Amino acid sequence: MAQGHDYPRERELIRTFLTEFNVQEGRRKIFKYVDTITKIAHREEVSLIVDLDDLHQYNPELCDYVQQNARTYTKLISDVVFEMLPTLRDREVPCKDTLDVYIQHRLIMEQRLRQPGENDSHNQFPPELMRRFEVFLRNLSGAKSIPIREVRAGHVGSLLTVRGIVTRCTEVKPILVVATYTCDQCGAETYQPVKSLSFMPLHKCPSDECRVNRSGGRLTLQTRGSKFIKFQEIRIQEHSDQVPVGHIPRSLTIYCKAEMTRQCMPGDHIAATGIFLPLLKSGFKQMAQGLITEHFLEAHRVVCLTKTDEEEQQKNDLTDEEMSEISGNNFYNKLAASIAPEIYGHEDVKKALLLLLIGGVNQNQGGMKIRGSINICLMGDPGVAKSQLLGFINRVAVRSQYTTGRGSSGVGLTAAVMKDPLTGEMTLEGGALVLADRGVCCIDEFDKMADADRTAIHEVMEQQTISIAKAGIMTTLNARVSILAAANPAYGRYNPRRTIEQNIQLPAALLSRFDLLWLIQDKPERDNDLRLAQHVIFVHQNSKQPPQQFTPIDIKLMRRYLALTQNIAPTVPAELCDYMVEAYVAIRRDARNNADMTFTSPRILLGIVRLSTALAKLRLSEEVEKSDIQEALRLMEMSKASLSQQPGQGGRQRSTRDRIFTLVQELAGTAKSVQMSDVVDACTNKGFKPTEVHETIEEYEQLNVWQINAARTKITFV
Amino acid sequence: MKNAALECVQSWNADFVENNLKDCLEKLSDYETWQKVSLYSATHSHHYKEGQLVRIQGMIQDMHNPEYYVSKYTVCNKATGTKTVRSGKYKDVMRVEPGESARCAKDGKDARERQNLFCIPIPALNKWALDIHKQNVALPEIHAEFGQSQGVKRKEMDEDHNDEEMVCEDSFKEVKKTEVRIENVAPTSSASENQSPQNLDDIKNFSFPVKNVEGQPFYLKVYEYDQSTVMNSMVEVVGFLSADPAISYVEDDMEESGKKLPASLIPRLHVVCLKNVEHCNPLLPSFNFSSDAALAFANAQAAVCDLKIIFTPLLLGDKLAVDFLICNLLSKVFVRKDVTQLGHLSLNLHEVPKMTGYVEKFYSILEQLVTKSHYFPLTIEVLNSTPFVPKKDYTCDKLRSGLLQLSQGTFLVFDETKMTVGQLLDLGTKNVMALKSFLERQEVEYDFQFYATPFQTDLSIIIFSERKSLFECDARVPLESDPEAVKALEASFEAAVLYLRNDEVTTRIRRFLTAAQLANYEIPEIVQTRVQEDFVEMRQRDKNFTGDDLHIVLNLARLLTLSTGAQALTAEIWKQACAMEGARRARL
Predict the structure, then answer these.
(1) Which of B220, B546, B554, B574 to mutate to test the interface with A (most CBs of A within 10 A)?
(2) In this model, does residue B587 exceed pLDDT 60?
(3) How far is A292 from chain B (nearest CA, A)?
(4) Would you call A412 an interface residue with chain B, using a CB distance cutoff of 8 Å?
(5) Amino acid A46: pLDDT
(6) Cβ <8 Å between B522 and A541
(7) Pure H helices in B146-263
């Protein structure tokens, strides 16, 4: 290296680090590394993991060197550890395996045969043979993982962390580290450390005896005296989101040795820390080596990532700047509008979809499971961008599956029992719902699905599990999914006069499992149409989206923010419970009184809880607030309103006021006056905007229907 | 001295280019100089020598991992003890003369990376375009010094005029050997599903989206790769040819063996300059073509007139269908944003006459006009056996190609009249789903087994069917046949063939179709307001008319504008587009 490393000095530094590094725990100091090395000395431990965090704390400069030139320092550390071993051994160690016995024999023999000071370079025991431990490095916890695409020639020799999906794993096989030979003439032992994947066996005995006598001793490989370690080769490939558009994912080979083997299976998402090294060739191949060298990652740490780890990682990445971009005024609307920004309007639907992505809180107490995921069904006339909404959600959600009702059978949606062609064993193959566990399953053309297949979804939608009893396999698989379904009304168009079941021909049992049902209708209206036309023309003219009042939030940022919300489990404070219950009772009462086209069941109460907790999660708050519940109720009301729309826009404005008035009347009952706050609450629960309410109140005040006191807290009927 | 060397493009060698990279690239940005580099032709592979600068045209079919090479190494002459530093750029094998030994830095400090791209000849390129390409191939003169003896111990690959004496007889023998190797690709075994490709035919089956393509695939080694070249893009490349058998020897030992095929089958090309091209019409320059395009575009009226003359009788006198066909021929995706993509116009012509081989005959006319096209009979058997979607094969680490991996602007003609009743198997179902989602989103999800990644694809699709097609297209036009035209159909085809014998006509049409696809387009403000008002009115009249329909009509208007040779929408054309869409809807 350019600075000219003072290795002996660094060796001392490392030694002090290993002996002196300690962590204060309570009143005791824990000497982490000394403890481990002592265990190694007693053959109770086979690997020493050096945490670069610790090293950084001790000597940042040294830590940098280690990171950049990891292989050399790994060797240095293991030399130091080897020297330390005898000093830490406080009792005789029983031999654990043949190699231990073998090593012990050699040591005894050496003591007997050799004169001190004699140095026979050929027959010295290579350090690799004598060591029964491995040194692994753990990267700094703050170190970012490098995308496989970014791994460059400049990284050769340094410690890297990469992430990817395992595409191939070889069997774990023994690899030769030191080959030991015996000579058939003189009986001397020769050792050959093997550093690459292949080696050229030695033939001629290099010992002094044979050389001097020219007896031409032949060497034979001794398996028992040679040292083997576990070896596995894995190949990882970039995650799909790291691949730029129009490119093929890249892959990287990882060599795992000793304790790093058997950490993952094909298909796993892993994070691997290791040293990026060129592959050395031996013998003739080395001479013939062309200009190309192959590189691999020597694993020092392999971690299987579960989804949550990944999310945690993503959370850390969210900078203050990004946070301020997301939060800030009106962020709920902004986030909602960023869902499928190219689709016009439908703000409430988008809000609902945003909540679906966030989800409520799963309750699992005393065996009683209450799902937290929100299910939504979008209905609508053909061509109202339902599929586009689904497609967008499918892209935003970290884990999601997209199927169409016609394309999937019940088995495809749940799980199938398959016979493995090789072993003849029965295996379970997850269908779309199982694969979307902890995610979203988008089902397009839900109405086109065969009845038998649809029933398979019932269990998933409430119990969040899939039970299978087929071909001798009985099991329950988790399917904690939010279902987003899109359906076309029967007979082409939605008929508000019929009930919802008649309209989309789905059984009530299934419909009640949706928290929100939404009817998206497309009605001609001058202003809207004009804006739509301008929008479309702009796209055609300028080949890009028109500038909007707001810039939609980037999908990746949104995804990370959503991941952040997943770490929060808000609770409903006791004082709001009553409020929620009242609201539910009111809904039930309404459903009884009016000839309701929708389906009202106790599940609605749970739905309100789910929606309001999702809203609290969106605010990153640990507690549900009254405004959350109000918004949840408003969404419920809007979804219901979308299903029972009165025809005609002009009359509707009028009817809003009428409805508010009737509501106030109901509220007052026989009493002469009502509290203003009650009125506002009741109205917002019904989905009216506060401004509408106030306008109505003022209007009726002017008409002298009622009077309002000076503080505007009370309404008294005249 | 240097300037003179720069002028003579053919004589550039690797060291020269490396030392004067900037000047060379500047030189190559000039189309004339670019053209001077000899175009590689597979049939004359023996004319090319190692390390020669050649030009190829192709499509990126696959991208491999980058490889690391030694950027410089020191060669020490054992006899004289002199040390020279040689560069590893643009080379595959070290150049070490007998009596020399090479050393490179152990710690890998000199390692640099280069990107490996797999480039195949542009698939579905039509015969006329290929013929013109062949005419353009100017074979390099065979110099006395070309080729060098090649041996494993004595590896040389780049030729250096100064210091070597050649034994000509020897080198000829060697070359012959290499040549035999290249052509010795007897189709002994056809690639079975699970086998990695072994010979050129296997490669074609494996990596080519369309099978009957002639030409030579290449491994491109790209230095300073900026990721702007994406999958399936058409490229023109100038680089140094390298087919040294020693490469295979070097690569054989690589851990990912089986991945790379021997250089004798697939030569390596060390890329000096890689250009993404937008079209591959040999009648127009591949870049810097604005003036030529404008010229071709000016001929729009005549060309469209020709097209109408040819196609009106073939489509049974149905003028509306002809209009839609012309629009389809000009269509190209011009904007992509999130889930919206605009510009494509897939066409379903149904109620085709019950004449045997109608679609084939129709296609044979079409393929004489467009640069790239492919005819695909939709039958149960073919659907069940031909993969549509490319799939990553991890055993050999290559991408197995599929029909929908065609380059931008290819015309894909599906013949659904061939469809019979039958059972779709696994592959068939996947194919149908892939085609459906492609027609919807102009996007194909390549199968990487562990996940699928969408790739943007831009193909123009025409489906011929007896009744409404299985697949939903942007525009469905039932043919309204004129009984007279039906009777004269046979004769009409003959007439069309005769008409196309006229070179002037074909050239005009061919140039126009490409130029129009690439032309710019705008909507003047005054027409914009008109369109807006019309839309509102249409909505009042028919509430089924949605924003998506407006997209379709606007797109039609764009294509109609281009077909008249104009580049700005006018009120008349807008009206015409509305009328056209209206007439089409009336037929459904």
Answers:
(1) B546
(2) yes
(3) 4
(4) no
(5) 83
(6) yes
(7) 168-183, 200-207, 245-252
Give CA–CA dist A459/A480, Å, rounded. Answer: 11
How far lies A425's CA from each of A420, A430, A492, B460, in Å? 5, 16, 47, 46
**Nearest beta carbon to residue B342 from set A252, A279, A540:** A540
Alpha carbon A594 to chain centroid, angstroms: 46
Q: Is A42 exposed, middle or buried (0-12, 13-18, 19+ CB in 10 A)?
A: middle
**Contact call for residues B117 and B219 (beta carbons, < 8 A):** yes
ipTM of the complex: 0.74
**pTM of structure:** 0.71
Rounded to whole angstroms, how far apart are CA atoms B107 and B111? Answer: 9
* Rounded Cα gap, residues A414 and A404, in angstroms: 14
Nearest by Cα to B386 from B343, B335, B427, B326: B427
- Taking an 8 Å cut-off on Cβ atoms, the answer to whether B340 and A342 are in contact is yes
Report which of B321, B303, B304 is spatially closest to residue B312, judged by C-alpha positions.
Answer: B321
CB A427 within 8 A of CB A418: yes
In angstroms, the CA A42 to CA A46 distance is 10
Q: How far does the CA of residue B531 sit from the closest CA of chain A (Å)?
A: 8
> Residue B305 in 3-state DSSP?
helix
CB contact under 8 A, A296 and B255: yes
Name the residue among B87, B30, B328 with its Cα closest to residue B223: B87
Cβ neighbors of A85 (< 8 A, separation 6 or more) are A37, A40, A41
Say if the Cβ atoms of B227 and A244 lie within 8 Å.
yes
- CA-only gyration radius of chain A, Å: 35
Q: Which secondary-structure segment (H or E) carries B242?
A: strand B234-242
The contacts of residue B320 (CB under 8 Å, 6+ apart) are: B477, B480, B580, B583, B584, B587
Asked if residue B233 has pLDDT above 60, the reply is: yes
The answer to whether the Cβ–Cβ distance between B92 and A250 falls below 8 Å is no
Task: List the single residue in A237, A253, A344 with the smallest CB-CB distance to B255.
Answer: A253
Q: Is B552 on the interface with A (CB under 8 A)?
A: no
CA dist B269 and B115 (Å) reads 12
Distance CA B106, CA A278 (A): 10
Nearest by CB to residue B558, choosing from A340, A383, A540, is A540
- Determine, for residues B152 and A344 on separate chains, whether the beta-carbon distance falls below 8 Å: no
Give the minimum alpha-carbon distance from A332 to chain B in angstroms, rounded to a whole number.
21
Quick count: other Cβ atoms within 10 Å of Cβ A448?
13
Q: pLDDT by residue (tens digit) across A626-680? A: 888 888 888 887 877 777 654 433 334 446 777 777 777 777 777 777 888 877 7
A448: which 2 tokens?
């086109």
Residue A200 near chain B (CB below 8 Å): no
For residues A467 and A201, give the distance between their C-alpha atoms in angstroms, rounded to a whole number. Answer: 57
The answer to whether B558 contacts chain A (CB < 8 Å) is yes
Burial A405-441 (b: 16+ CB within 10 A, else e): bebbebebbbbbbeeeeeeeeeebebbbbbbbbbbbb
Residue A210 contacts by C-beta under 8 Å, 6 or more apart in sequence? A183, A185, A186, A188, A204, A216, A217
Q: B254, A294: Cβ pair inside 8 Å?
A: yes
Classify A601 as helix, strand or coil: coil
DSSP state, residue A240: G
Backbone dihedral angles phi then psi of residue B333, each to the nearest 5 degrees? -70, 125
Query: A410: helix, coil or strand?
Result: helix
Query: Quick one: pLDDT at residue B463?
Result: 92
The Cα of A341 is separated from the nearest Cα of chain B by a number of Å equal to 9
Give the model confidence (pLDDT) of B170-187 as tens digits: 333 333 333 333 333 333
For A543, which DSSP code?
Answer: S
With a pLDDT cut of 90, the percent of chain A lying above it is: 0
